[in-house]
Predict the 3D structure of the following.
Amino acid sequence: MKHIYLVIPLVATIAFGGYYAFWNNFRAEPQREKLRRPRIDDTYYLAQYKTRDGAQEAREDIHNGRLILKRGGCAFDPSITEYWAILEERYGVKQDAILGPFTTEAASKYVSSYNKVVWSYLSEQFGITSAQLSEEAQIRYRAKRKAASKPVQRTGADARR
């Protein structure tokens, strides 16, 4: 058997493997930078809350006629959309999602102090609390789910099938 039949596929496989390894390493470097988890304290966006006073900003917003509640973290309650819908429809309160799943202690304090002032204003003006609103949102969410899960009544030609 001729040796050329063994050498050519072997050289081609080695060349392909070398090129693929080079290409994969070259392409993977930028992706590794994207996947690197940023240090939260270093980001300007969250670091800015160290010097901000949430309570004072809330008072200014209320004085200027803006009712806003700051929202942070990940919401696991499925009725949260109803909660925000009730606040928007009935009381004109907007939501501002400033914190994602990553947060710092300074940002959490800012959100907490801001929302405390807004909730005290809402309880004075409208006589509502967060617990009451949450309970109403749960009821509304369950009613919508129940209505969505009812079977559809077939009429006419569809009923005969």
Notes: The longest helix spans residues 4-35. The mean pLDDT is 78.
